[in-house]
Amino acid sequence: EEKLNLDDSQWEDIHVVTGALKMFFRELPEPLFPYCFFEQFVEAIKIQDNATRIKAIRSLVKKLPRPNYDTMKILFEHLKKIAAKESVNLMSTQSLGIVFGPTLLRPEKETGNMAVHMLYQNQIVELMLSEYSKIFG
Q1: Residue 60 in contact with residue 37, Cβ under 8 Å?
Q2: Within 13 Å, how many C-alpha atoms sit on residue 66's CB side?
Q3: Is the domain defined by 9-136 classed in CATH 1.10.555.10?
C-alpha cells in the first residue's frame, strides 16, 4: 500500500535493497518453499548420492505451485549471478545459503530441531545455486 520512490538515494545502498528483498520473502503468508514441502526438501538434501539428491530436489521444485516455481527460478538465477561475483562482493553460495535459507524455507511450526533445520535450509539453497542448471534447466 505504501508508495515507494525508487529514485530516492536510500535505494543506492545495496544493503537496503537486500534487506528489503529478504523482508519481502520473510513476510509472505507462506514461505517461497511452501510449508507442506519443507520435510520433503529436508529428506532430499539428506540423500548421500549427489546425482540422486539433485534429481530429488529437481523433482520437488517441479511440483511447486507455478507462482512459487517462477519466482524461485528468477530469484535463484539472480543469486547465482551474485555468487559469480564472490571475489568482489564476498557472497559465496554458502554465504547466500546462510542468508536466504531460513527466509525461503522454514517449517510451519518450529520444534527443538531449529539448529538442524537451519543447516538443511542452508544446504538446500546452496545446492540449488550450485546446481541451478540441473534443477531449473
Answers
A1: yes
A2: 0
A3: yes
Question: Could you tell me the CA-to-CA distances from 12 to 15, 34, 55, 90, 110 in Å, in that order?
Answer: 9, 32, 39, 19, 36
70 vs 108: CA distance, rounded Å = 22
Segments in the chain forming alpha helices (H): 14-26, 38-45, 50-63, 66-84, 86-89, 93-104, 114-130, 132-136
> Residue 50 has what pLDDT?
97
DSSP secondary structure string, 47-84? -SSHHHHHHHHHHHHHHS-HHHHHHHHHHHHHHHHHHH
Q: Where are the domains of the chain?
A: 9-136
pLDDT in tens, the chain (137 residues): 577 777 888 777 777 788 889 999 999 999 999 999 999 999 999 999 999 999 999 999 999 999 999 999 999 999 999 999 999 999 999 999 999 999 999 999 877 677 888 999 999 999 999 999 999 99
